[in-house]
Structure formats: structure tokens, C-alpha cells
Model the fold of this input.
Amino acid sequence: MIISIVAGGPVDLLPNLNVYREKTSIWVGVDRGVYTLLHHDIVPDAAFGDFDSVTEAELAEIKETLNHLEVYPTEKDETDLEIALTWALSKQPEEIYVFGATGGRIDHFIGNLQLLLKTPILEQKNNLNIFIVDKQNLISFKTPGTYTIETLNDKRYVSFLPMLKEVKGITLEGFKYPLTNHALPVGSTLCISNELISEYGNFSFTDGILMVIRSSD
Done:
């Protein structure tokens, strides 16, 4: 099962959602993301939010189209996206794509990144792939292990950033700038803007949490 979540970030940063139509099992709208989905001719299977980012007319259109809508108070202890992501995780999917989570307010963007660092997500990370996606970037987090990565024609660059603490034993094979059993401390820019030199490459590490970013210019 693949779940695609559309949050309320700037529409001009969204990738082409049509690319994800066929492989998505469940579409989820978050706050203004519900309205965005409807205007991409996608009726979400689930919708969450306080809907403080839509007009009364837009909310009326949402209520008229959706049979079930979960409306939350503006003052709460979780963001709308965290509520939606928790719901999505309960479905035990193989992959989750999160759109509309970048751009706009930087506090929202950083908060959205940190959602992927939650313990329940990291504990099952080797069996679950979660991606934050916009038209220029594909972001994921990895726990220690060995991974195969393939060339993406529209996202040439691959960056590896240590999160929370030093990443140990990182090895990069099949990359323009390879590494062998290297330590990557927090704050290092050593692994920014690497590139694959063949169709596939491998990366591995033994300790820490690694943010992997696939990007285009």
C-alpha cells in the first residue's frame, strides 16, 4: 500500500501529482491540501485539519465534495500534518509520500522534517519508506544499514546529512565522490551534492541517522 499526503504548502512547489496517481492507494488531504487535491481532480480518501488556511467558500466546497471530513480545533498539541501522518502510519503502508510540506514558513518546514525523526517511524524505517517531495527535492531519513540507490534523471544530485549525532562508518560506492568507513559529524558539508556515476550505487553506515536528499538544479 502506498499513501500520498498533500499538505498546505505552496502549490507552485508541488511536483506533478499525476506521476503518483497510478501507484497511490490512498490519498490524504491536510488542511488547504484538501482543496489543492480537489483542484487536481483528486478526491482524497481521508482529510484532516483545522482549515484555518482556506476561505469560507473553499471550505464549503470541501464539505460539499467529501463525505467524511475530520475538523480539528486550531489550538491543539499536534500539527495537522502530524495528525494525518499518525493516521497514515496506522494503515501500515509500504511507502508514504508527503507533498506540500516545503516552502512557505520555515518553522513549518523544519517541523515537517522532524516528524520523520519520530521514534515509531525510525524503528520501522528499514521496512517503511517515507518521502517528503517537492518539484525539486526528494527527502528521506535512513537508519543504519546498507541501501541501494538508483539514478533519477530529474534529480541528479545526492546529498547525505547527519542528523542529531555523528554518522559513523559511512561508505559510498558508485558515486563520483566515494567514501570508505568514514565518520560524518553533525555540521559537516562533506557529502553535499554528490552524484552517481552509474545506474545504481550503494551507501551504508553503522551508527546515526542520515538524511538523504535527491535534488535537481
Remarks:
- The chain has a mean pLDDT of 90.
- DSSP finds five helices and 13 strands in the chain.
- The longest strand covers residues 157-173.
- The two ends are 31 Å apart (CA to CA).
